[in-house]
Specification:
- By secondary structure, the protein is an alpha+beta fold.
- It has two domains: about 5-160 and about 290-300, 2-Layer Sandwich (Ribosomal Protein S5, domain 2), CATH 3.30.230.10; about 165-290, 2-Layer Sandwich (Alpha-Beta Plaits), CATH 3.30.70.890.
- The protein is built from ten helices and eleven strands.
- The chain has helices at about 60-70, 95-110, 115-130, 130-140, 175-180, 190-210, 215, 225, 235-245, 265-280; strands at about 5-15, 25-35, 40-45, 80-85, 140-150, 150-155, 165-170, 250, 260, 285-290, 295-300.
- Strands 1, 2, 3, 4, 5, 6 and 11 form a seven-stranded mixed β-sheet that branches.
- A hairpin with a 6-residue loop joins strand 8 and strand 9 (about 260).
- Helix 1 crosses helix 2, helix 2 (about 95-110) crosses helix 4 (about 130-140) and helix 3 (about 115-130) packs antiparallel against helix 4 (about 130-140).
- It is globular, with a radius of gyration of 19 Å.
- The mean pLDDT is about 95.
Length: about 300
């Protein structure tokens, strides 16, 4: 019963404007989880959304761990799972992707690494239905993700400069389901081309670290024009960020968090967003985060 696995899993942002359901980026906000064998199921939780987290077999981390044992054809043992989570829930910062990776990677380690990271990502996709947040939490850095015949192809780019993300995180949440409800069933041909061009440019931008084209590369016509109606004041937050030197602005994931990138103006942008939120009477915290190039890690 003594075997215990301690994991540290980064949060993530995804989409980044033009890369809908494609790009993920790991951030240095960390979910900490300890998984060990036990004589009965025990789940404890502290952190964001504590009152909303279930502590039984329906807990997302436990369900992900159970999937590993199912895939391995092994009997699921009783587990003790201790969770410390600073990642806001349902805010577009990959809290569910991080949780899924925690359960998968922790159980995989208990089974002496029976599955590869590539297999773990495919299992995560089976659970969540989209791969980009889980990929960023698993691998770290900037990930570009493709679904090919049901299999996930994921590639990582390490970020080697001082890129920072300013995050405006409202108290109100937006569920992924609600954010998808507002999307159109069909898009025009020229709008699809618009996004293909900019997502290719965005990949080049992160690959080279040349962020001069980031504002153009993050423009989008597939999801943000529709989702921003769920986020009060989005246009004003975007405008004031660009007026004060932001490199790029987007909805983080499906929201409700807004994100802007900078290399050296994080305090200025943080202050302007905080002031605008207060003016518009939007309860929100405004944080600065850096890119995390390491994905899930195991602690001593």
């Amino acid at each position: 019963m003594s075997k215990s696995i301690k994991l540290k899993i980064p949060a993530s942002t995804s989409n980044l404007g033009s890369g809908f359901d494609t790009f993920g980026l790991a951030l240095n906000i960390y979910l900490n989880v300890e998984v060990s064998l036990a004589d009965s199921l025990k789940i404890s939780y502290s952190g964001e959304g504590e009152q909303d987290i279930v502590l039984d077999e329906t807990n997302l981390i436990f369900k992900a761990a159970a999937k590993i044992y199912e895939k391995a054809g092994a009997r699921l043992p009783f587990l003790s799972i201790n969770i410390e989570n600073p990642i806001p829930l349902c805010r577009g910062l990959g809290s569910s992707g991080a949780a899924i990776i925690a359960g998968l990677a922790g159980a995989n380690k208990l089974l002496d690494d029976k599955f590869s990271n590539s297999e773990l990502l495919n299992f995560a996709h089976e659970i969540e239905g989209h791969p980009e947040n889980a990929a960023a939490s698993l691998y770290g850095g900037f990930t570009t993700n493709c679904i090919n015949n049901g299999e996930i192809i994921s590639r990582k780019i390490e970020i080697t400069n001082s890129l920072k993300a300013v995050l405006l995180i409202p108290e109100t949440s937006v569920s992924t389901e609600d954010a998808r409800e507002v999307l159109p069933v069909l898009v025009a041909y020229d709008e699809a081309i618009f996004n293909v061009q900019r997502s290719a440019l965005l990949t080049h931008t992160f690959l080279t670290g040349d962020f001069g084209s980031l504002k153009t590369a993050m423009q989008d016509k597939l999801h943000q024009p529709f989702r921003k109606q769920l986020l009060p004041g989005y246009d004003e937050f975007e405008e004031i960020a660009y007026e004060n030197g932001a490199l790029g602005v987007c909805i983080s994931g499906s929201g409700s968090t807004l994100l802007c990138f900078t290399e050296d103006k994080e305090t200025l942008l943080q202050n302007h967003w905080r002031a605008l939120a207060e003016e518009k009477e939007i309860a929100a915290q405004v944080l600065v985060s850096e890119v995390e190039n390491q994905g899930v890690s195991f602690q001593d």
